[in-house]
Amino acid sequence: MKRLNLSILALATTLFASSILADDETHVTQHYSFSLNDVNEVYIDGGIGVMEVIHSDADDIKIELEIEGKRRFWVMNKRDISDLELVQSQRGDTLKIRMNQDDVEHVEIHWRIELPSVARTHVNLGVGQITGEFADTELKLDVGVGAADIAIVRSSAGRVNASAGVGSAELHGASNVVSKRVMISEEIYGYGDGKNHMELNVGVGEVQVRLTDNALVSF
């Protein structure tokens, strides 16, 4: 694999930290904007938190983060999170946005993401809850522990797979639905009217997927 040329990356994908508003060193609100020039795949690795994904018709991704530091075991003071920031990188046509693993310890994060449609979208959340709406994209979504409640435009969706390793999986509004329940796990699949494959997985928890004919509200 070729080593990433950072100077080219800086030109290819532009990150704007438009504002960082700190109430104190333990509570901060951040705003980011990421260009989608030459990007066909977006990978968002959220680590932990509550994540809200909203469909957008803009030319870039906008992310608002509310981060609060928590107390660490016997330490009385909350964690200082004033230096936490999102990290972005681009390889080929794939843009990756993530939090460093060390940065998600002893914090609470609320994500609000305005996400335009690209050819492929991958969202990963280790622990937490995600609500989202997705239009014309091939979608892969993974939640380690938690819950997902996802709306997908029916005209975009081809085969839709939803599964919970420990928990429950529901799929509404699809055709030819097949559900398989084995002990404590559940898998369900069905079809929309489009061609994009959708795969949504929760390790422990529940996943609910709805296919909709309603146009998504765009920002």
Describe this structure in words.
The N terminus is likely disordered. The protein has about 220 residues and is mainly β. It starts with 5 loop residues before the first helix and ends in a 7-residue tail after the last strand. Strands 1, 2, 3, 4, 5, 6, 7, 8, 9, 10, 11, 12, 13 and 14 form a 14-stranded mixed β-sheet that branches. The chain is about 5% helix and about 65% strand. The protein contains one helix and 14 strands; from the N terminus they run H-E-E-E-E-E-E-E-E-E-E-E-E-E-E. The longest helix has 7 residues. The protein has one domain.
Draw up the topology in text:
Blueprint: H1 6-12, E1 15-24, E2 27-35, E3 41-45, E4 48-56, E5 60-69, E6 87-91, E7 94-98, E8 107-116, E9 120-134, E10 138-153, E11 157-172, E12 175-182, E13 185-191, E14 196-212
Parallel strand pairs: 3-7, 3-9, 4-8, 4-9, 9-10, 10-14, 11-14
Antiparallel strand pairs: 1-2, 2-5, 5-8, 6-7, 11-13, 12-13
